[in-house]
């Protein structure tokens, strides 16, 4: 375990494992078959990357998107790990370099897209190398019911059998049904060692708002976060284009992305998003899986997602670096009506449609939640013991009222008009509005005509929306979207069950525009300077900014203000390779001028051996001209001091083997005294 901890610090730059990582790393390192369900941004990649560095031989990683693979390879290489990818986007030079490393036995991780497995030749190629483990990222892609289904994922089980190696599968999106599919298709039904590591992403602030001039709501939300990377999800391709244009008009760096674009245009957006700080991508769900940019600070939904799983997966793209992030969702009655209709008009069988309505109901329950959203969301994943204080309902608890009476009035209006009308006409009846449509059908004579004058039209719209959210009424596809009552409404209609509703107002829908600060006001200028330095280095190296350091690392630098190379080594995300490449550059931003330590000393940064080196250096300085200060100058090289630190000789004979007789005579006993105190 000590070796794992050392690699965690020196290679990946982390002082400790995140919750749940250590046990998974140990199981994968031991060669167990593993299925790990971890929250998005919970550190899944480390759970196969660290064992790959520890184990002999080659780890093959099956990953669904080229952009994701290239990002991970660049990140590993920046940390000093030999990694490569074979993708259709490779240049011939890149492919030749990968095979050269494979033939030399130097490569630790090889990334492949699942489509590469379709060629029989790839299996033969892999047999030639010492493959000791398979890792499968986004393992839920094996599920034929999932919207991320990739047929070539079905070949992975056969590859595992052919190579005879353990397999570790990772995903953040897997309900019980999907987990069983993964086990059947990847592990031949033999249960692997399974880890279910909580779904909470406590750093993401959750909020929902009902639509009220939604474009202005989104523009206000984005304006408060100008300069931060974000994603806006839209329900239609056309909306992605118009909303991206509106954001650009407001001075944002923004572009659109959807499945109808040419492949080259999509790749261009993906490349821009990976490398540009502060870019906003307005997209359909086509822009999703494989987005591994760790410093996405916010995700907004311009329209209601299709299910609670989709919502969880999409907001999970924010804040993967663990720094504060935000998720805001706009929704309205039309969204609910559209999602119901899409399910009812789909090609799935009756059981699947019922399950899809259940998933949508769970999301609507979250949208119309009466208490903490995080508790409501995570209860769907069977997590109960949750502390939040990071959602809009915890920020400002909603005003609740007993809605049983108004709901019964609305249901009565729907039933007395034979469930053949939408909310607009039913509200006219409840308000006593003698519209042409009401008069033509004689609905002014109904007992429910005018019984709802105590509420405004806007308030009735909120009531009907919440009724749809609670699945008390649904649009009927056979009746042009007219609202019909569900079985869940019967107890309320019969006064056997009460129901609580929220007092939504137009004023309330405008809340939530204020951005959550990443650092306090005092540290903000330094954070901006660190980001500017990161951007310069990234542009010079032609890599995404987060490959240098992610936001969370820069935030910690701004807050802790390291003064020495040792202090810098203790910052999370600063491994040995990045410390060597960038440590002094960022120290100079923080402290203006820092003395550059010798490379031998830099290798010991952040460890006790570094302090020991400094003590030996200090003693050497005192004795450089002998105890009386009158002898001929004498000193040890930095490499020699580092060797003493490493070997830690216990007596003069051992010390002489390192230093030689002359230097032992001058420094030997003093060095031994330092070593004895340290040990």
CATH class wording of the largest domain: Alpha Beta
What do we call the CATH homologous superfamily of the largest domain? P-loop containing nucleotide triphosphate hydrolases
Strand order of the largest sheet: 3-4-2-5-6-1-7
Distance between the termini: 22 Å
Largest sheet: 7 strands, parallel
Rg from Cα: 31 Å
Number of helices: 32
Beta-strand proportion: 5-15%
Global geometry: elongated
CATH architecture of the largest domain: 3-Layer(aba) Sandwich
* Class computed from helices, strands and strand pairing: alpha/beta
Helix content bin: 40-55%
Overall average pLDDT:
86
Please, how many domains? 5
CATH-derived topology of the largest domain: Rossmann fold
Low-confidence residue ranges: 506-512
The total count of strands amounts to 17
Question: Would you kindly provide a written description of the structure presented here, covering whatever features stand out?
Answer:
The two termini are 22 Å apart. It is built from 32 helices and 17 strands. It is α/β, with parallel strands linked by helices and 679 residues long. Strands 3-4-2-5-6-1-7 form a 7-stranded parallel sheet, sandwiched between helices. Helix 23 (524-541) crosses helix 25 (551-560) and helix 23 crosses helix 27. Residues 506-512 have low confidence and may be disordered. The chain is elongated and about 115 Å long. The protein has 5 domains: 2-196, Rossmann fold (3-Layer(aba) Sandwich), CATH 3.40.50; 204-395, Rossmann fold; 400-502, Winged helix-like DNA-binding domain superfamily/Winged helix DNA-binding domain (Arc Repressor Mutant, subunit A), CATH 1.10.10; 524-596, Orthogonal Bundle (DNA polymerase, domain 1), CATH 1.10.150.80; 608-678, DNA polymerase, domain 1. Helix 11 links the parallel strand 10 and strand 11.
